Amino acid sequence: MRLAAFALLLSAAAPCLRAEADLSAVRISGTDYVSLDEGAARLGLRIERSIPQTTVMLKDGAQPVARLGDHSRDADFKGLRVFLGDPVLEHGGKFYISRLDYDYRLVPRLRPDLCAPLPRQPHVIAIDPGHGGPDDGAENRTYHSMEKTYTLDVSERLKKLLTAAGYSVVMTRETDVDVPKEIRSEIANKANADLLVSIHFNSLYPNTKTGGVEIMLFPPRTQRSADSWSPGKKSDAEDASAPVNSFNAWNTVLAGGLHRRLVDALKTGDRGEKFEHLRVLRGLKCPGVLVESAFLSSDAEAQRLATPSYRDTIASAILAGIQDYSDTIRRLHPAQVATPPGAAPATVPAPGPASHSQPTRPNAVP
After folding, report:
1. 59-75: b (≥16 Cβ within 10 Å) or e
2. pLDDT band, very low/low/confident/very high, at 15 (cuts 50, 70, 90)
3. In whole angstroms, what is the distance from residue 214 CA to residue 212 CA?
4. Which of 114, 142, 167 is the last residue of a domain?
5. Is the per-residue pLDDT at 138 higher than 90?
6. Is residue 1 pLDDT above 80, yes or no?
7. Which of 75, 102, 208, 250 has the fewest CB atoms below 10 angstroms from its CB?
């Protein structure tokens, strides 16, 4: 992409960052971008070219923490696949990342201490079992298993684990009924929930081979959904902010915890974190994430999902991800927040750096 009219602008303080982290910005095709070199320096990181030369690595000392590629949204953060809202661009030997991706994808993952304001320490957790009633969701055609059944089952298992750990739990549905998406977020808001996890299972029929974990977040204002980048699709970016956009940075922190725990626990593959304009998340007044922990269109994953022990593993991984998020909030404000009474440490051991793959080369923009 040619960077015509490459005028430098001094931006105001980034929404996620404290004032001392101001960055200069450039306007490229209607989108604000910042220098990855400058942004990395502000985070105490160093940047180096990778192989191929169209990719760049961010390092914390000798440890790789992110890899990004020119004209690509497909990035790697500490071994996790993450789709950016805008492609990274190279110009004049330097890499640029969109201001929104820097604020809401990169900084929350690598330096959450720079994100403000801090949300509440989680005490009330909203669990949303997807679908229900006449809305079956996805179905496996070999085993005739329905998404709505498994979402409720995993949610009930997760509720027991959260309750035992000292959290209060609100469910958006507890029986086989269809609750409108907007009402689900209202239920969480009325309960004064500190976060919401919406539980779903994926499908790609007629593709029966694809499997793995996928995490969905609501896009920041003016950024597109992942699906709208597909060939022939138009931008679905929204000019107005949704209530959940007040928690863009913390949606990312929560998603990162859930993503890591599910990928490590299930070992079925990483389909990445993506943006979608999801109605169940739109109206939230707290951080919220939707998880797709398995593909019902895959017979192999559907067979695993049919076993109670596998559904226990999914619930335990989600609990651990929530506790990782809670631990992050507590570390950032240890004197002002408290752990839920009787809260236990994460039940899935936290992985060390050596247990994760090194960042992989991003693919081209789909």
Report:
1. bbeeebbbbbbbebbbb
2. low
3. 7
4. 114
5. yes
6. no
7. 208
320 and 176 both lie in a single domain? yes
The domain total for the chain is: 2
How many Cβ atoms are within 10 Å of 9's Cβ, its own excluded? 10
Beta strands in 192-336 (DSSP E): 195-202, 213-217, 270-275, 288-295
For 47, 57, 164, the CA distances from 354, given in Å and listed in that order, are 21, 18, 31
Tokens of 168: 């209060």
At 237, which amino acid appears?
A
Q: pLDDT digits over 180-236, tens only?
A: 999 999 999 999 999 999 999 999 999 999 999 999 999 999 999 999 999 999 999
Q: Which amino acid is at 19?
A: A
163 and 275, same domain (yes or no):
yes
Residue type, 167: Y
- The answer to whether position 218 is within a domain reads yes
Q: Are strands 168-171 and 270-275 parallel, antiparallel or unpaired?
A: unpaired
> Which tokens go with 208?
């029966």
- What are the φ and ψ backbone dihedral angles of 360, each rounded to 5 degrees? -105, 160
> Would you say 349 and 328 are in contact if contact means Cβ atoms under 8 Å apart?
no
Percent of the chain with pLDDT over 70: 85
pLDDT band at 139 (very low <50, low <70, confident <90, very high): very high
What gap in Å lies between CA 21 and CA 99, rounded to an integer?
12
Q: By the 8 A CB rule, do 85 and 224 touch?
A: yes
- Asked whether residue 134 falls in the same domain as residue 274, the answer is yes
Question: Which residue from 322, 329, 314 is spatially nearest to 345, judged by alpha carbons?
Answer: 322
Which residue's structure tokens are 């604020």? Answer: 103
Task: Supply the DSSP string of 309-327, one letter for each residue.
Answer: HHHHHHHHHHHHHHHHHHH
Residue range(s) defining the domain that contains residue 325? 124-349
The per-residue pLDDT for 340 is 55
What does the alpha-carbon distance between residue 125 and residue 272 come to, in Å, rounded to a whole number?
A: 24
Q: Is residue 146 part of a domain?
A: yes
Residues 6+ apart with CB under 8 A from 243: 282, 283, 284, 285
CA distance 359 to 349: 22
Based on the fold, state whether residues 216 and 170 are members of the same structural domain: yes
